[in-house]
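User: Can you fold this complex?
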Amino acid sequence: MRVSRQMLVTLRDVPAEAEIASHQLLLRAGYIRRVGSGIYAYLPFMWKVIQRITSIVREEMSRAGALETLLPQLHPSELWKRSGRWQGYTAGEGIMFHLEDRQGRELGLGPTHEEVITSLAGELLRSYRQLPVNLYQIQTKFRDEIRPRFGLMRGREFIMKDAYSFHATEESLQATYTAMDEAYRRIFARCGLDAVPVDADSGAIGGAASQEFMVTADAGEDLILISDDGLYAANQEKAISCPHEAIPLETGEPITLKTPGQGSIESLCETQGWHPSQVVKVLILMARMEDESEKPLLVSLRADQELNQVKLVNALSRLMDQGVLDCHPITVEETARQGLAPLPLGAIGPDLDDAVLKGARSWAPSFIRLADNTATELDRFHCGGNNHDLHRCHSDWETLGGRPGGQDLRNARAGEACVHNPKARLQDKRGIEVGHIFQLGRKYSQAMDCRFTNESGRDEAFWMGCYGIGISRLAQAAVEQHHDDAGICWPTAIAPFEAIVVVANIQDETQLALGEATYTTLLEAGIDVLLDDRKERAGVKFKDADLIGIPWRIVIGRDAAEGNVELIERSNREMRKLPHAEATSSLVSALRP
RNA sequence: CGGGGCGUGGCGCAGCUUGGUAGCGCACUACUUUGGGGUAGUAGGGGUCGUGGGUUCAAAUCCCGCCGCUCCGACCA
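Assistant: Here's the predicted assembly.
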């Protein structure tokens, strides 16, 4: 391919819309253009990258025995109503784009395909003898993200590989889950990415075990915790750890203190000379449940700890046996709207009386009380006095009406000891989620009543797994992980071209002739090579080659008369001056070892 | 949705406070020049100043509404 024919449009200035390096570089180097908020065109170079990635994905999925298919993007609402997800995915802050056709039928644009595939499986897979089956597709997904950002990183229209497996037994599901884990490791390694598998929360998709694959990069939206012995890694949403020991509180008189202006843990501890680990803080939150009921929550936590919202929501939905639509701290305004007296925010104790909720307009009349282990394990502690500007010192659970059952509701943090090995410490890193595998279990097959006949002739719901890779996101994550000041440094396996031949001065006939010859030699060797034949100054062509990030560059320049050229590796900028035949052969052997 | 910022040729911006000829850099076209890290010069093309209304003799500029984009929080591949 000749650069002069490539519609290569590079920008010197960074478009104002781009914040992070990968987004800026993809725009500047002419890989993508924004068409709308969270909607991007993949320009020809980008499409080549995407195709490189998808062919690796196809090879590895196929190796793992999965079958490629292509499902519709337009989904009848009935399917989603059968699984019970229509309401949650369309109403309020739902992420599904939906519309009505001319007959008034409701349709949604697929944000994910469990419904479609499960219903098809239910029709096609009648017997355990057909199982297991693993189906995948590579296709555009639509999600009306609350906040699209960072270019392809969180788009509203994006390319995803999604796979769904169907099994007669849980053991079979686990075997495929393991196979997918291995396939994913191979895929990311082949794409040249440093991707860490981490334990993950299964979120809205649901199910039992789940693991995310994180490309480590400072621009990542997730915080991941990794043990320094390399044996444990988890998303902070899910991560567990041993909290630091509390500083023991010596015995003292249980008294009530006036604490004006000490509504925050920081100011309270500073004024009173307490350590936060000696205090039980109580967070007051409002949970809106799937049945639209509004439940006030009191969550007790040792004051040096942070609440983990995901763990809280999971604990709550287990307790109430239904989903949680929203959970947020209660505000002064909300309390007023309920017609209640102001709550003693900043001085709430675990035993705050339900009476404060009496007469609430729409809230449930009593608190759901939850406690983290760090709080319940304290024998003596300070806590709020349930009145404005009052705290109680040297209190204990017996005084407060009994020690509650504790559970894990806190954030694990860097520096803490690991549960699997107390000698190991957690470190934190930012990560970009490029893949996620789930053991769904029978959640969807039961909800949609999709069954097969088992060995003993009885109908049974499928065991299911699902496995996603954000293809377009992966492409950008690769740039985030592989770039320098001058531009992109694509891993060779997913680069749009493997090499570029730059003729420094095309008006020099010797250079031009040697350039064409080198280009032809490489083409004939099966190398995906680009020839920069533009009538531009050498500097411009070098800058562009660096920016677009082609892994290898051969420069035909002033030494062309002697038959010598330069061979340069983009990633480390190593340059060798070589006779041209040697340069092409050493390039070919580097690319086709 | 809550809270900031911004909408002026393809890209990056100035002009707006104090109303009166729409400007700069990059990119683009032609010619000249240069020819190994975004060469220099000359000439040129391209803008309903997001949009609707209002104030005014006169609005990019002042006032009101709407739309869009973007950043910080709740969603996720």
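The first strand of chain A starts at residue 32 and ends at 36. The two ends of chain A are 23 Å apart (CA to CA).
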